[in-house]
Amino acid sequence: MSSSDATALPARPDRIFDRADEWTDLVAFAQDPRPGPTLALVSGQRRQGKTFLLEAVSRATGGFYFDGQAAAEAESLRRFAERLAAHTGAESVPHWHGWDEAAQALLVLGDERPAPVIIDDFPELVGHSPALPSVLHAAFARVHQERPHNRTRLILSGASPAVIRRLFAGPSSLHGLASLELAMQPFGFRKAARFWGIRAPRLAVQVHAVVGGTPAYRGDLVCDDVPAGPDDFDAWVCRTVLNPRVPLFWEARHLLEQEGDYADRALCHSVLVAIAGGRSTPGGIADRLGASLHDVSHVLAVMHKHGLLHGEPDAFRPGLTRYRIAEPLLAFEHAIAWPHRAALEQEEAPAVWRRIRPVFDATVAAPHFAQLCRDWATQYATWDTFGGEPTTAVRGTVPDPEEDTRLDAEVVVRGMADGRPGVLLSVGLARWNEIMDAPHLARLRRILALLTASGEDIGQVVPACYSGVGFGPELRAAEAKGEVLLIGTDRLYHGD
């Protein structure tokens, strides 16, 4: 669709926060006037607003919307027939014996005009009708051959990555037919702050460390209970995520339960507890649990495959993979709620929270702040910030033989400079609850000296300090001399 056609697209409803690109892509797909049936695949984890968006697209374009549910095939076909009859104004409800008949009736909708057809939670239907993807693939092939001017715009949506991958595989792959693939992601940390209406950057980091950027957590799971200000954060935690009467309290365990093929769910929880407690490598996790490296590696691979974990190479030891929990709520659950479940069930939440608040700062807020700093480096820092174009930002460890220890750098940025990829642009330390000063710069200089000794080119490195509470006078003086880059929470949320 041309740019001039874009002005004719239905306006995004005010009740949909952001998602402007997703809205434009979907309504343009739904109203594409070109001949030929087309397919779009929409994916994303739970609670990202897929259904909310797709229902709005259906209303705006006059499309047919059907919400898939886990039910026997005959029941799903009956529901589907009733919905389609109501949509078309048919005098009677058809009785189909299989999905091939339903697919044929569905694709007829596009014979006269662009006809959006949205099947939400498609994997729920596939679970009880495994042949359904192949049936749709065959139906599309027939329409392409027999009715090339048909303009059905079929949109399939699903949250489960495992089932979506099944749709993409095999000789009857729907992936090969898709002209649009759209992944609904959580809001980035800046958009999440705006969505929650939080202006104070430090409070925004704290809230994001609990609920991340999943939009449904604010409306559906805490009923728009937003911290009134920085001084309300502790009370907000107690009345929401630590309150069994609030749906958010139960959500984290549903994130695991929705994936039903874990062989050892207890080991999954233990691995998540270890990661939330600071162990990030397979060997470190296995040592913490007293489990075999083989078993731990298998669980890590399964959870990584399902999108519950992110695996990233160490900045200076590429053969070493570090894992972190992808969903902040899941990290909060396994660092705070899971280990203290008995106390939370026996005592008032405020009393328990006062005791474990330091644990939150050390094991949840601090690593989450470091991750936001890495996100800032790749998403918001400009060329001038580091003297190059940032492409990756990860953790890095450097051995210090004199002290027989390893020094960690939380924000190691590489990117493009002078036409060269992979240039080391910046090495930084991130401290959530420390006022950073001269000792931190000295530590950075020691890391850079060790990197030089190891053969790393540090010619373009910008030393950086990221702090959640501020910087001391000596570090400020070093910044004025151009010796170090300082990034606080204000710049994290509002600067580049």
UniProtKB/TrEMBL annotation:
<dbReference type="InterPro" id="IPR027417">
    <property type="entry name" value="P-loop_NTPase"/>
</dbReference>
<dbReference type="InterPro" id="IPR036390">
    <property type="entry name" value="WH_DNA-bd_sf"/>
</dbReference>
<protein>
    <submittedName>
        <fullName>GTP-binding protein</fullName>
    </submittedName>
</protein>
